[in-house]
């Protein structure tokens, strides 16, 4: 039996405590998780983008969750978010990014939850280097009066507001890139009772 203290440095084997994680692609994504509605839905909208680190490089191992109201502004109370039946809108979706940091959800444009309010999608970001998840919002770009009146957006400097407003593409899709740090860093939110 060899003495561990006499092993050559190249013979050492990493232990689980020396691995790098978390590994979001394992067990957390589920079938049809990014599909809040099926692609066949008459008003289906593609929400997509890329997750970037502080150096501006795509992050290949992030996971995103979204919650949103339906087209009429109603917050769904339907159970079964993890078991997609193909037609029930539950308002929740989960997507892992691909190896180039890209994500895609199939959803609908949310309606305002209150009269005159700016419609938005709530997003949570899980990624390497984060000890806890990050919270942000994705606002629709069309109703500029509602965006100007939104309390959260109004509390931010004008150049920071833009990091929370999606871009509407020619085909009707919404593009929303997430920048964890650096130039154009996405505004992230803190909530009482939830550790940062």
Descriptive keywords:
196 residues, mainly beta, Protocatechuate 3,4-Dioxygenase, subunit A, four-stranded antiparallel beta sheet, 3 helices, 9 strands
What's the SSE pattern?
EEEEEEHHHEEE
Estimate the mean pLDDT confidence. 87
Helix content: under 10%
Structural category: mainly beta
User: Largest sheet at a glance?
Assistant: 5 strands, mixed
Q: How far apart are the termini?
A: 49 Å
CATH structural class:
Mainly Beta
Gyration radius, to the nearest Å?
20 Å
For CATH, the homologous superfamily is named as Aromatic compound dioxygenase
- Residue ranges: pLDDT <50 for 5 or more in a row? none
Tally of individual helices: 3
Domains, number: 1
Choose one word for the global shape: globular
Number of strands: 9
The CATH architecture name reads Sandwich
Identify the quaternary structure here.
single chain
């Amino acid at each position: 039996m060899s003495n561990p203290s006499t092993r050559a440095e190249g013979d050492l084997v990493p232990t689980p405590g020396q691995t790098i994680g978390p590994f979001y692609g394992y067990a957390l994504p589920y079938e049809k998780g990014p599909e809040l509605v099926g692609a066949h839905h008459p008003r289906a909208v593609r929400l997509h983008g890329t997750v970037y680190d502080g150096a501006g490089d795509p992050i290949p191992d992030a996971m995103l969750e979204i919650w949103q109201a339906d087209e009429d502004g109603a917050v769904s109370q339907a159970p079964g978010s993890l078991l997609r039946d193909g037609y029930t809108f539950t308002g929740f979706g989960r997507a892992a990014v691909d190896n180039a940091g890209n994500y895609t959800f199939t959803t609908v444009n949310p309606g305002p939850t209150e009269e005159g309010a700016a419609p938005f999608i709530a997003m949570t970001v899980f990624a390497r280097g984060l000890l806890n998840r990050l919270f942000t919002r994705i606002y629709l770009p069309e109703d500029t009066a509602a965006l100007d009146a939104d309390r959260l957006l109004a509390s931010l400097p004008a150049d920071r507001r833009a990091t929370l407003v999606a871009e509407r593409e020619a085909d009707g899709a919404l593009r929303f890139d997430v920048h964890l740090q650096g130039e154009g860093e996405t505004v992230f939110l803190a909530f009482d009772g939830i550790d940062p």
